[in-house]
Amino acid sequence: MQSNPLDAICVDSKPDVVIDVREVFGIDTEMQISGFSESSANVPDKIDGYAFDPDTTLAILAGFSHDRRVMLQGLHGTGKSSHIEQVASRLNWPCLRVNLDSNISRLDLIGRDAIVVEDGKQRTVFQEGILPWAMQRPVALIFDEYDAGRPDVMFLLQRLLENEGKLTLLEQNRVVSSHPSFRLFATANTVGLGDATGLYHGTQQLNQAQMDRWHIVSKLEFLPFEQELALLQAQVKGLTEEQQPMLGNMVAMAQLTREGFKHGDISTLMSLRTLLTWADNFKIFGDLALAFKVSFLNRCDEEERMILSEYYQRCFDTEIMDYSGALSFA
């Protein structure tokens, strides 16, 4: 039987080394933080060359070092979840992500009764959900898409967000206390006030009494040009020396779409995730314009593609709108 990697998280583990924030994260601060000396199967993989936003990184580190509940808010593709994971990877802190969409129910998080067979007999046992399970271990639990959660599920988290971090399991008539090294984070596209842009269907307004319980709310913006370029260069391998300058033009193109979105000229922006996808697709097709079309342009409003074509010409000094109709691939 294949072992479950979650079983590798030892309940008795605790931070046992001190990490210098300036040395590890390149941030000008005297802050030091405890971490684990050894990695485990649930520690996120380290991305070399990852660009850490100073303010966001300090907010996340405060969550780890002082047990603060931290929410990251920002547009899609700004790297909210990966930011938390990359901090955790350098602390060797086990990390789990749960997508808190509208299909996640209270029972999914808390647990439910299940029938098991032992010694040839059936009996009913309570199987813990991911929330009480994680609370009792040295785990950083990330709730992704926090602003898309169902209201009944969100109220479940109310007491957990308080300082003592406890959870009442009515199904078992017991109170679960948090492990000293349990940490809770969340990511959201909105800040709990609803979506005024129309980009994030399924998100909703959050109860402000619950928002008040988050100790730290940090807004993550897209990276500056130089940092985004450095990250792209670190991620995209195998390009020739002649192809390397192309990466700077790709970043410039992405940033033009964000400026256009900010000013209302276009309704779709290119995230860092899409930028990396564009580079990966270029390595597949060997054609930058085709890779751009299938990675980004074909999912944009047809009436806005002329604007995007102008952006492309400004960055690459070449026309892209030399076809009739949008390309599509099965």
TrEMBL record:
One of its GO terms (molecular function) is cobaltochelatase activity. It holds the Pfam family CobS_N. The keyword Ligase applies. It is an enzyme of class 6 (ligase). The keyword Ligase applies. Its EC number is 6.6.1.2. Residues 70-192 form the ATPase dynein-related AAA domain. Signal peptide: none annotated. Residues 13-41 form the Cobaltochelatase subunit CobS N-terminal domain. Keywords: Ligase. PANTHER family: MAGNESIUM-CHELATASE SUBUNIT CHLD (PTHR42759:SF1), MOXR FAMILY PROTEIN (PTHR42759). This is Aerobic cobaltochelatase subunit CobS.
